[in-house]
Amino acid sequence: MNRSNVSPLKTLMLVVIVLSMFPSCATKMSIEQAKQVSVSMADVPTFVPPPRRIDDILEILNQPGQFDKSITEKFRARADDVAPENADGKFFDDRGFAAAELGRPLQALEDYREAMRRSEQAGIHNPNLMRRLATRERGLGNFNLAVELLEESLSLSESPATYGRLLETYIQMGSLEKATQTLKKARLFCTTSPNRRNTNFVLRCDIETAAMEAFLLEAQAKYAEAEKPFRQHLALLQTVKDEHPGQLINARLQLADNLLKQERLIEAEIEARQTLKDSLGHAGKDSLMTAGITAKIADILRGQGRLSEADKLASRAIRILESSGIPGDAQRMGGTRMLLGSIKATKGDFTGAMEQFTLATEGVNENQYLYKKRFLGNPNYILSLVMTGQPEKAIKITTRSYETAKQRFGEKHYATAQRLALRGMAHHRMKNHKDAVRDLSQATDILISYQTEKGDYSKTMRLRIVLDDYINLLGEIHNTPLEKELGMDAA
User: What gap in Å lies between CA 244 and CA 101, rounded to an integer?
Assistant: First the structure.
């Protein structure tokens, strides 16, 4: 048979079938078996994009974009309004809301804080202001303060939007149980409230519960199931576009991110490009909203294997953030640096990747929620630790994150197995050969079963590295007492 006519995926499937026929081999893959899979992985081509170039995205960033000018002008006028000497809390609340819808989170935060201060001085306790301030505080990583504000807001007046922000905060804090309970409370409120026959109230409930369902499903890695409520959320927001233009743009970005997680890369790029045009027309090229969308497109290009282009866009997003005065320890900046680090890791530049990951640690070590979100589950960060001579740290992180993933996703899930494989690589570097064989043999069988021909390029590259490492490990233990102890033939 001419090997060039056999697709990588078919070769990969053949190896999986062989392994399934011999259970003893499935858990202890030999060198030859591992080489078969590794050779197949070498043949997997880089994603071939449609005829378009990075230049057209960079050109789009220099264009005015497309959005309803009448809506944008209304929000800009309000956000740019100068405060009179006797301005009350409501003025700053309204101005902060406009700034938030224009993708100006720092201005929104300052205005909301000032609104809260003046409102409290006047003896006014505004639950909607508390919710909006909580959202901005969460953006800086102040999760506990956000929860306090949201719970106080709910104690004053229940709102589907407040339940929505609380659920999102709990998910970012890693508390799925509390997030689930929050969704249940929101549904109960929406079905029993005296306002349930009010058309506007029902619309608000539908908008928020759709988003809550989607985020909760995504938190459980049920990405395909989350797509439907994400699309419902987007469609419902279209009906209130003139009131919440920024939320509408963000909703489309969330859909693009969901498609990326499903590895539907072309669809993800199409949605993200449309979002970029909307953001440029509404918020402008130097807005933080545009920076976030630019970073998301970079992430999609990373998944497609268009790494040089992804590097350029991620770097462009960082420059926008820096020029906007975003501190290094803010979620946006740290997340974007993590993305750039992941891109460099996928390119094989692990030293450059660690430089970005180190910058992303600024101010995070004291914030357990941000640290967990940013580092514990990031496979490119863990791989970079291993590849730059820090296996002990990698073992510590993966041991903790593996148990978390096992509880959240299940033992057979790709994300869980990936953590186990990276821990196996770290054990290999530490000469803990028995532990390395245990982890890698169990993980590779699961990882191979997930491999597709048109999946995420960076996942394919990580799997190739894992398999190459496993081949080297099996070679090292061949004809040693450990090979006999494990009851395997590493040859």
Answer: 7
